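Title: Comparing notes on inverse folding

I've been comparing how different people in this forum approach sequence design from structure. To keep things fair, I'm posting one structure and asking everyone to reply with a full sequence. Here's the target:
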């Protein structure tokens, strides 16, 4: 799952832009829209979610397939002894690719990329019709899950179990790229530190090589000086006096893997940016490079007006500027893998990431509170809802997340699920194989899941399987609403219970209160900016009294869109520290001051 890049041996063509667009109103197979030009005059931007682009409610509320189509010309300089591929970085939640009249491939999973080889279907210098069909349907066997209901008139309604809008479409870039026949297929880098020496252990997978063809690895520093070399597809490079990648002080080496002919000619080259650092959980401490680390930051969302989940580099850079201003050193990719550009940016700027799969909504107890008639008399872990097929999809999402993000220095913790029902019978049987899989795929990083409030330390059935306790708690908001004195006592009692039972680091991965920007109150009324400040001050008093708490990621970075069917949401979730258009609420300055001291305590320079 190497991300395409332009090198001396590879070419890369962006297919981003405005594509023809059409809904599939019948079945995809019946309409077969890939066999001709799409009907109608609609056009849609790529990358972007399509839901908020158009004014037609039928498009906004559509459940099922849509099609994107454009004409593509293969560069005439490409040769017939190369291989050609398409790369679709995200198709939410299922994608199918067609070249002219031919089906090429299908991928399930809306937030990880997939490739389609088209070598035998296209020719250099010639044009072809590219159609990508995208389906947004969620069922009990998808990750995330959902239910589709068909109304009396035949219209489909999607019910999903996560509290953010189910944006769909081609939200990330699409590429056409070439590879040499003999090429680097995958690279895995795991770093270690021994004294002042940095160690890069690498594993290079290649296409089938011929007699005498070899792999050579070169490592360069940020000044482009060669600091290490090695021969062979597997090995280690030792770098004396290595500069470590640190939170707030990123440093990246470039590991270049080359396939060489028997005569020494370069057949392919691919570079991986890698930061040398270690991650460890020891007792109640989370250590990066052997030093205790305290997470300050956010749960976030890929969510902006009009674009939906469409990746936007301007918003990305601005969001990182806001995180820098507020002294946030980390974020969680709640509740799905983010665009690869975001991970690259975090690598370059020393921002720590908790990387999460799309496994959100595996909880009928939560769902029964949100949706009438859902989950009241059912078990989450059952043949009727979250079953063996769901777990297979969940396992696939873990494999694809690790395969894509394993080399990012910024990623220090895998989160394999958000708020599953881990106090119900069947939870351990469901999660134990997934935890084992995550550890097998990447033994170098700790593994976590995000615990929901219904599963406390007394009745949770899986917490011992994981390395870190990650808690989402809303004392003072969803429970004991507005009663911060009671909330404070209950919150502290629970944290001490987790510490006493498990003796592991505790990260508060969600805590917050909905707040309407501009609403002020002398009486600390819920929804006011004043209450939000008092709420966070209460939470932070508790955090400071429990030494096992090693992080606070508030919910949420910015207000975000939710389903219109959620009558308890007015134009979205308003728990943001910033509004959806990135204006600060009063709490932003309070967090900035608190986190400045937290970062100074960890030896950060340049805090605001």
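Reply #1:
Here's my take.
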């Amino acid at each position: 799952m190497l991300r395409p890049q332009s090198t001396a041996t590879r070419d890369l063509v962006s297919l981003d832009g405005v594509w023809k667009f059409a809904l599939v109103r019948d079945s995809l197979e019946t309409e077969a829209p890939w066999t001709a030009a799409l009907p109608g005059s609609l056009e849609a931007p790529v990358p972007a979610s399509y839901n908020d682009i158009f004014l037609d409610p039928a498009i906004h509320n559509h459940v099922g397939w849509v099609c994107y189509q454009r004409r593509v010309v293969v560069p005439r300089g490409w040769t017939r002894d190369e291989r050609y591929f398409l790369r679709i970085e995200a198709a939410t939640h299922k994608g199918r690719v067609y070249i002219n009249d031919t089906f090429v491939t299908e991928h399930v999973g809306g937030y990880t990329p997939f490739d389609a080889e088209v070598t035998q279907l296209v020719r250099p210098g010639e044009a072809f019709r590219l159609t990508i069909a995208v389906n947004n349907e969620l069922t009990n066997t998808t990750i995330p899950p959902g239910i589709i209901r068909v109304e009396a008139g035949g219209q489909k309604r999607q019910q999903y179990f996560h509290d953010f809008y189910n944006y769909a479409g081609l939200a990330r870039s699409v590429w056409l790229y070439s590879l040499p026949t003999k090429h680097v297929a995958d690279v895995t880098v795991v770093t270690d530190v021994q004294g002042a020496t940095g160690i890069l252990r690498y594993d290079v997978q290649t296409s089938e090589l011929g007699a005498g063809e070899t792999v050579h690895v070169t490592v360069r520093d940020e000044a482009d000086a060669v600091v290490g070399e090695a021969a062979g597809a597997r090995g280690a490079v030792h770098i004396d006096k290595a500069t470590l990648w640190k939170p707030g002080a990123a440093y990246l080496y470039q590991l270049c893997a080359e396939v060489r002919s028997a005569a020494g000619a370069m057949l392919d080259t691919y570079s991986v940016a890698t930061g040398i650092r270690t991650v460890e959980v020891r007792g109640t401490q989370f250590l990066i490079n052997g030093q205790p680390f305290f997470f300050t930051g956010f749960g976030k969302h890929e969510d902006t007006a009009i674009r939906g989940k469409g990746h936007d580099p301007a918003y990305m850079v601005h969001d990182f500027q806001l995180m820098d201003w507020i002294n946030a050193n980390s974020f969680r990719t709640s509740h799905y893998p983010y665009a690869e550009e975001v991970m690259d940016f975090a690598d370059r700027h020393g921002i720590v990431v908790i990387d999460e799969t799309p496994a959100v909504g595996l909880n009928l107890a939560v769902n029964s509170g949100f949706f009438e008639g859902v989950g009241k008399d059912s078990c989450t872990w059952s043949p009727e809802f979250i079953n063996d097929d769901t777990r297979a999809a969940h396992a696939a999402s873990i494999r694809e997340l690790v395969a894509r993000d394993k080399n990012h220095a910024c990623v220090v913790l895998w989160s394999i699920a958000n708020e599953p029902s881990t106090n119900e019978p069947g939870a351990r049987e469901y999660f134990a194989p997934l935890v084992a899989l995550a550890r097998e795929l990447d033994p170098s990083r700790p593994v976590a899941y995000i615990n929901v409030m219904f599963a406390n330390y007394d009745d949770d059935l899986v917490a011992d399987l994981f390395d870190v306790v990650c808690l989402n708690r809303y004392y003072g908001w969803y429970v004991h609403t507005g009663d911060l004195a009671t909330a404070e006592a209950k919150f502290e009692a629970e944290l001490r219970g987790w510490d006493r039972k498990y003796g592991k680091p505790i990260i508060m991965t969600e805590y917050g209160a909905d707040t309407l920007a501009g609403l002020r109150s002398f009486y600390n009324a819920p929804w006011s900016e004043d209450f939000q400040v008092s709420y966070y001050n209460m939470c932070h008093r508790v955090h400071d009294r429990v030494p096992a708490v090693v992080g606070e990621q508030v919910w949420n970075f910015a207000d975000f869109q939710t389903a219109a069917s959620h009558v308890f949401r007015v134009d979205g979730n308003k728990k943001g520290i910033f509004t959806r258009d990135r204006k600060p609420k009063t709490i932003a300055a309070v967090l900035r001051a608190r986190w400045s001291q937290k970062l100074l305590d960890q030896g950060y320079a340049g805090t605001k």
